[in-house]
Amino acid sequence: MRKAAGATETAPKVVTTLSGIPVEPAYGPEHLAGFDPSRDLGEPGEFPYTRGIHRTMYRGKLWTMRQFAGFATAEETNARYHYLLEQGQTGLSVAFDLPTLMGFDSDHPAAAGEVGKCGVAICSLEDMETLFRGIPLGEVSVSMTINSPAPVIWAMYLAVAEQQGVEWARLNGTLQNDILKEYIAQKEYIFPPRPSMRLVTDVIEFATRHVPKFNPISISGYHIREAGSTAVQELAFTLRDGIEYVEWAVRRGMGVDEFAPRLSFFFNAHNDFFEEIAKYRAARRMWARIMRDRFGARNERSMKLRFHAQTAGCSLTWQQPYNNVVRTTLQALAAVLGGCQSLHTNSLDEAYALPSEHAVTLALRTQQVIAYESGVTATPDPLGGSYYLEWLTVQMERGAEDYIRRIDEMGGMIPAIEQNYPQREIAQASYAYQRAVEAGERIVVGVNAFQSDHDAPIEILQIDETAARKQRERLAALRRRRSSTRVQAALDAVRRAAEGRENTMPYLLDAVRSYATLGEICDALRGVFGTYQEPNVL
Amino acid sequence: MERPIRVLVAKPGLDGHDRGVKIIARALRDAGMEVIYTGLRQTPEMIVNAALQEDVQVIGLSILSGAHNAIVPRVMQLLKEKGAEDVLVIVGGIIPDEDAEQLKQLGVAAVFQPGASLQEIVNFIRSSVKQAVSGP
Questions:
Q1: Taking the CA of residue B74 as centre, how many other CA atoms within 13 Å lie in the half-sphere pointing to its CB?
Q2: pLDDT tens digits, one per residue of A331-351
Q3: Scanning A284, A381, A461, B37, which has its CA 20 to 30 A from the CA of B121?
Q4: Residue of A nearest to B116 (CA)
Q5: Which of B70, B46, B125, B61 is nearest to B93 (CA)?
Q6: Which residue in B23, B66, B94 is closest to A431 by CB distance?
Q7: Which distant-in-sequence residues (6+ apart) come within 8 Å of B88 by Cβ?
Q8: Contact between chains at A112 and B66 (C-beta distance less than 8 A)
Q9: Residue of A41, A63, A24, A53 whose CA lies nearest to A393
Q10: Rounded Cα–Cα distance for residues A520 and A479 (Å)
């Protein structure tokens, strides 16, 4: 066994958090000067919600166990959903493949080699019908990770609900629909920022009027963190994105308390245990104050930050993959102690491929062990009042407030993105972290320390080209079968709506009901809005 | 003075996860190489054209999405058609062992899987390019 460069016989000396915040040898009351528990903490379920958004937290209701899943075609993914629900999962979460995320049909040249690989391929309403076959949408909440084409995919979902005879008012679920973090981090964008923001706002407005229990957006720090940001940057950029969405919706003429209760958030659960818990607590406190003081919200529900958490994909290692179970357990525990409303735990094989059924079952069991065996659900915010945690929560908050102020000074998130500001901050943090790993200053067990020569072999889910072929055949059959006159008329109407100022959702609904494909509808929108290419800066 | 090694770093396919490609580009630059980064969503045609225009000795491809078996063979074929087989091609990303072997048979010089160190990649490029220059 080799040791890390610089590691001594004793445990490595941790002097900063994973995000680089210096940590003192011990914490006491002197570190909480100016901290007022009644103002800064409150009771669980009370403003500013630092201790959680519910008085009883998990005693009242456990978090939703929601494993992100999707691969190959709608048929295979539908079978996986039935399996997960049988195993005790309590909500669904759809992963789409890259062509779908980019608004291309499976038969587009750019889709070559990518169909069904990173998620499920969805080209038309027909695929969406298959995806949810036998799943009662009035009872199961469904989260969909889709951004640039979100309004189109959501229209397909609403159309499936209609077919199942489920009223839209009964639908529960979440659409990711967070385009700003795409420009900042994940880079799955189609249109330029401003028309994209108009589409996001169309969805928020339509949900508020017609699908009131559905979360029309999940404002996401997860991908920002995966791109290499620090915890403070994740917190800051996510909340500043949230401010941007609220401003756009208010400018559209909606009252803040009409739509804000349905804004939801999505954070990463990374390795540094206390830093992550501090991040979630700071997020709730900051959002409550932003909504009350910056936007004048009156409704308590507008001030309560609800969030989904996912354990950190970027922390998983290819070496010694079984270690990933342990990492995921610690990260999931941080999310639970931080008061998440729903949780995805990564599978041990995800540094290799999409998870196998065996691996995803173990990941779900991890949540069930935390929920039913560990006892951490007995009382809300059990770590509240810890000198270290309260101090760290304040550090998170101050660091994030500085970033938000800087972005405000730039004129908001869109000018900041256009100046490459958040992208550059993240790239710098990510490079600094990698250098520290390279130098042995940060230990990654099994990678730069404690290596072994023979890593345990694991079973890997393989997706071959059969799925792509099947998908292209289905699509060709659909194109022959449907009424092209009706499709053309619906696409023309989408184009006119996009050129004007009306909400595009009703037109997108008509288009998907005519079985116009995702690629055709996105092409119509590309024709009006153009496409975006980011400046090539390192 | 010795001319610095010229490397084109590219991210083909639809995936936008560019953390890895940006780290590699910076590390190669810090190691004294001339780095040209193509940006996202480059087709094999765009990559090979850029490599010829920029007269690079090395092409580095970052692929995480599983599309490597569709993309890399096309890059290798285009290089051959243009008589540029001497350009060193390396691939980094989530590439299963058996696929890595196949890519090497097509002429890919090295495949770097998750956890590969930056120094290892820098050293590989330096020694391979030196060998090619002073070769028979």
A1: 17
A2: 999 999 999 999 999 999 999
A3: A461
A4: A447
A5: B61
A6: B23
A7: B57, B58, B59, B109, B125, B128, B129, B132
A8: no
A9: A41
A10: 11
Widest CA span in chain A: 75
Q: Which residues of B touch A353 (CB under 8 A)?
A: 66, 94, 96
Any chain B CB within 8 A of the CB of A102? Answer: yes
Q: Is A431 on the interface with B (CB under 8 A)?
A: yes
The residue whose two tokens read 């994209």 is: A196
From chain A, pick out residues whose CB is under 8 angstroms from the CB of B67.
Answer: 98, 112-114, 117
Interfacial residues of B (vs A; Cβ cutoff 8 Å) = 13-19, 22-23, 25-27, 29, 35, 37-41, 65-71, 94, 96, 113-115, 117-119
The pair of three-digit structure tokens given for residue A48, joined into one six-digit string: 């500013």
Substitution target in B19, B43, B47, B119 with the highest count of A β-carbons within 10 Å is B19
Q: Answer yes or no: are the C-beta atoms of A97 and A115 closer than 8 Å.
A: yes
**Which residue of B9, B18, B64 to mutate against A (max A Cβ within 10 Å)?**
B18
At CA B64, angle to CA A112 and CA B25, rounded to 5? 115
A479-489 pLDDT per residue, tens: 999 999 999 99
- Overall pTM surpassing 0.90 (yes/no): yes
Among A382-396, A452-466, A496-510, B104-118, name the one with the lowest average pLDDT. Answer: A452-466
Averaged over A98-112, what is the pLDDT? Answer: 96
β-strands A263-269, A342-344 pairing: unpaired
A538 in contact with chain B, both atoms CB, cutoff 8 A: yes
Burial A20-50 (b: 16+ CB within 10 A, else e): ebebeeebeeeebeeeeeeebbbebbbbbbb
The whole-angstrom separation of Cα A171 and Cα A214 is 6
Distance from CA of A147 to the nearest CA of B (A): 13
Q: Is the Cβ pair B19, A227 closer than 8 Å?
A: yes
pLDDT, tens only, A263-310: 999 999 999 999 999 999 999 999 999 999 999 999 999 999 999 999
Residues of B in contact with A104 (CB under 8 A): 14
Q: E strands, B1-136, where?
A: 6-12, 34-42, 58-63, 88-93, 110-112
Query: To which H or E segment does residue A92 belong?
Result: strand A92-95
Cα A15–A17–A19 angle (5° rounding)? Answer: 130
Provide the shortest C-alpha distance from residue A71 to chain B (in Å): 12
Residue A72 tokens read as: 């190959």
- pLDDT by residue (tens digit) across B63-111? 999 899 999 999 999 999 999 999 999 999 999 999 999 999 999 999 9
